[in-house]
Amino acid sequence: MSLKVTPLTEAHRAAGARMVEFGGYDMPVQYADGVLKEHLWTRRHCGLFDVSHMGPSFLRLKAPSGEAKADHAAVCALLEPLVCGDLRGLKRGQLRYTLLLNDHGGIVDDLMVGRPIGDDEQGALQIVVNAGTKEGDFARIAAAAGDAGELVRADDRGLIAVQGPEAEAVTAAIIPEAADLSFMTLTRALFAGGEAVISRSGYTGEDGYEILVAAGQARQLWDRLLQDERARPIGLGARDSLRLEAGLPLYGHDLDETVSPVEAGLEFALSKRRREAEDFPGAARALGELAGRIERRRVGLRVLEGAPAREGAEIVDAAGAVVGMVTSGGFSPSLSAPIAMGYVPPALAEPGAELGVIVRGKRQGAVVTSLPFVPHRYHRKPGA
Amino acid sequence: MRFTKDHEWVEAVGDVATLGITAYAAEQLGDVVFVELPSLGKTVKAGDPFAVVESVKTASDVYAPVSGEVVAVNSDLPDTPETVNAEPEKDGWFAKVKLANPAELDALMDRAAYEQFLSTL
Question: What is the pTM of this model?
Fold first, then answer.
């Protein structure tokens, strides 16, 4: 089967990127600079990421009433039964991280849901899911929407993430509306005569944006952004090391259908209204876990010596008994040290707990560390 | 200098051979952030893993091009793994072995054959 391409695949090849298969797509894992330099460039300046392989989409009411509040409540009522987040409570232009859950309270995917800003789109939600899970997610959401709503895929468009301390300056020079957004908000903007949706969000722990544009305008936006010498293209390799330092879980690795939101340390995604109503999939499990009946928790680990501990490495306690498994791990370019995430029993999950990881048969010391490893630098509204 | 299809090099002086990974391998790996070397006195067998290199993204085994006893390791390498990228076929050497069977060298590619091999990848 041939690999799928994004509107930017040609741009990556022309830039000399090393391409790999990812989620069925032909994607750049690194450019000429290499993972280490790309990672540090994003932390210091501005990195551009092609994330068009992900699953942007819109869930729309088939017959909106035209009354904004009622239409928003109606479209949220279609999606809320699948997730643990309060979508109805979203303000116009607000974005929320939430989780698709199965009946056992396991995580089917993690996703971003945004309430559009315009009067004419209040019967719609913008939904962005992961590349590897998008077919299943879209089918699940479409089935839940039934006859009342339709799920319109937008994964043929371009989705570009602009991340780093200079992301605002780089982006606002091209899309002025960018400067007015705060973390986890979105708006519509014009780019090259077409409509773009821009949100202040990302997956690196840095300030930045994700910009959804028509396929025909993606290359133009990419090239315009790259004309700024502060911006460089960044591959999937550095995207992974950046999100690991930021303590952000990766679906299919740190999260799967057996893991609950509480085990994963994503309690914040269980919105207050939904907890009180106990009306999300697997609510009984999640609430029991919040009350302390929990078997494992996701933790950060600083590996104190030796090789990076990677996915699948065993975590052992002081006595050498296996107590868990590394779900993501590697070398942190910012800290120049190996870091990892994994699951351990709650008694061993407190920061400072001394554990070990087994790499190629050898025990290496590791200590539980609070996440993120590298502080987030999101652009939050003053006072928010 | 002789080369393997797994992109290791070996250079013999008398009955002692120096081992490392090729410039091509270093380039493919990307930034090397960790190197694990064999212990002194260990006996390595041609074709078996004898060291590990790790980039930010992955860990890769390094296979012994020849058999023998490890008589020296590049002890600077664990502290300066970036030398593998900077000087893969020189200062980035991994280990020296006392050749158990010098005839093994004859089965390996010379520079011209290795470059020909690279052009087919």
Answer: 0.95
